[in-house]
Design goal:
This protein is α+β, with helices and mostly antiparallel strands. It folds into two domains: about 1-30; about 35-120, Beta Barrel (OB fold (Dihydrolipoamide Acetyltransferase, E2P)). The protein has helices at about 5-30, 35-40, and strands at about 55-65, 70, 75-85, 90, 100-105, 115-120.
């Protein structure tokens, strides 16, 4: 039996729909930070030498709470031994990490922030 033009087009439509569903499911099931963890993201600024080559993520600080922080509208838990870094070096205090500041962060296996890095443009 020879397929007609309509049959071939119908088969292509079905194949495209299946491909689209597969891509959608893949995007929905992967954690948001998968690409960050594998590649490390780096903002488009010159960072000090003691900063890492890439971060697990970065963004503007929306809110600072007790043991947690919101960066770009995403809530993150802080590890109990979280470390804070500024362009001048490691810092013992939270002071420069105010709301609106740009910061990069590194995560541990539990997806808690273990280090927070102030980014100054």
């Amino acid at each position: 039996m020879v397929k007609t033009g309509k049959g071939i087009i119908k088969g292509l439509k079905i194949a495209l729909v299946i491909l689209g569903v597969c891509v959608l499911i893949t995007q929905m099931t992967l954690p948001r930070s998968v690409s960050h963890a594998q590649q490390g993201v780096k903002p488009e600024v010159v960072l000090p030498d003691h900063y890492p080559d890439g971060f697990d993520g970065y963004g503007r600080i929306d809110r600072v709470g007790n043991g947690e922080i919101v960066i770009d509208e995403e809530l993150w838990k802080l590890a109990p031994d979280v470390e804070y870094y500024t362009p001048g070096g490691p810092g013992p205090t939270w002071v420069p990490f105010d709301e609106g500041a740009l910061a990069g962060y590194l995560l541990n296996e539990e997806k808690k922030i273990v280090s927070l890095w102030l980014i100054v443009r």
